[in-house]
Design a protein that fits this description.
single chain; alpha/beta; Rossmann fold; four-stranded antiparallel beta sheet; 22% strand; Lipopolysaccharide export system ATP-binding protein LptB; transport; ATP binding; hydrolase
Length: 261
């Protein structure tokens, strides 16, 4: 579905992404892990159009999408969320969702004068869709709350809900579990699984919580120093000596040795 070939993203002399190549298969929940500074978010930003890579190629179902802007990728069904939620804080959670679909009738001045019935019909349909999304995510109780006043975990669920307001095919999740309490983390994980199984979403997620990664992801891709160092199941990655040394830490390695005695 997504194929990245020899991608580079340089900032002056700093090589944030340095020859990364990987594949994200359709229908998977792919984990992307690595130490801080490994290039994970820069890679995401290159794929999702936030950054234009220095060199290399990004393909989506065989189509070259390298350097396309986020709004172009949005129309192809490629979306991303951010580590820090980007909600419209003064609008309700329902209104945040209703804002997502592009090309709404009420966006033009002419239609606000002469297309009022069509606007009203469209808004009713969007409201119903937003309420369906909120119910799916089990956060219907916050529908009328200002988005800026809900918890961090609820904002992450709202970000996930935005992807459900359009025909998303590929969703990139940037540390969706960061700063979220365990109860809401399980709710987020369940929503991701259901979207994958029931609605055919393909996900790629950056995450540091290995338990969360193990619960959701197969395969798991490990980045270090701007390139891919390993790919495998969560169990294979957690037992890979090179990955343990580079990312999981010598403490894990020593613990494994102690357990073997």
């Amino acid at each position: 579905m997504i194929e990245v070939r020899d991608l580079h993203m340089h900032f002056g002399g700093f090589r944030a992404v340095d020859g990364a190549s990987l594949t994200i298969e359709r229908g998977t929940i792919t984990g992307l892990i690595g130490p801080n500074g490994a290039g994970k978010t820069s890679l995401f930003n290159c794929i999702a159009g936030v950054l234009t890579p220095t060199s290399g190629t990004v393909l989506f179902d065989g189509e070259d999408i390298t350097g396309l802007k986020p709004h172009n990728l949005f129309h192809k069904g490629i979306l991303r969320t951010f580590q820090i939620a980007h909600e419209f804080h003064s609008m309700t959670c329902r209104e945040n969702l209703m804002m997502v679909p592009a090309g709404q009738t009420g966006e033009t001045l002419w239609n606000t004068w002469f297309g009022r019935k069509r606007i009203a019909d469209e808004e009713r349909a969007l409201r119903a869709k937003a309420d369906e999304v909120l119910e799916f995510l089990t956060i219907e109780h916050i529908a009328d709350l200002k988005a800026g006043n809900v918890s961090g975990g609820q904002k992450k669920l709202l970000e996930l809900g935005r992807t459900m307001m359009v025909d998303a095919e590929m969703v990139f999740l940037d540390e969706v579990g960061a700063g979220v309490n365990r109860t809401l983390l399980y709710t987020i994980g369940d929503a991701i699984k259901r979207l994958n199984v029931e609605r055919g979403y393909t996900f790629c997620m950056i995450e540091h919580d290995m338990d969360f990664i193990k619960q959701l992801c197969d395969p798991v891709i490990v980045m270090a120093q701007g390139s891919v160092m390993a790919t495998g199941t969560a169990d294979e990655i957690m037992s890979n000596e090179a990955v343990i040394e580079a990312y999981l830490g010598t403490g894990v390695k020593n613990k494994k040795k102690e357990g073997a005695k």
